[in-house]
Specification:
Oligomer: single chain
Structural class: mainly alpha
Distance between the termini: 61 Å
Helix content: 40-55%
Radius of gyration: 22 Å
Bound molecules: calcium ion
Order of helices and strands: HH
Shape: elongated
Number of strands: 0
């Protein structure tokens, strides 16, 4: 009898962990997918510099990881450059 209780207890603990993991994933996955904008473009590397678009300060220009994904001498986009880059990415996808 004691063994059966231990099995039931183990099952309940596993069930609770499974439910918690399910809810954490259900909350996290949509947030991760939204990071790059309204769609999933943040998970791609448009300029193939090894830095995903949502982490790349210069998502349309090949750059160094040390420089946030921007070519040397540049530390990000101004509003016009960012807009042009977003348009370029939309054209490609
Ligand atoms: Ca880049």
């Amino acid at each position: 009898m004691r063994n059966k209780k231990a099995v039931e207890m183990h099952f309940m603990i596993m069930l609770i962990i499974a439910v918690i993991v399910f809810f954490v994933l259900a909350i996290m996955i949509p947030n991760l997918l939204r990071k790059g904008g309204e769609d999933t473009e943040g998970f791609f590397d448009f300029d193939n510099d090894g830095i995903l678009n949502n982490l790349d300060k210069c998502a349309c220009h090949y750059g160094e990881e040390d420089n946030g994904g921007c070519p040397s001498g540049k530390d990000g986009y101004n509003d016009a450059e960012r807009e042009k880059c977003e348009e370029d990415m939309k054209k490609e996808t």
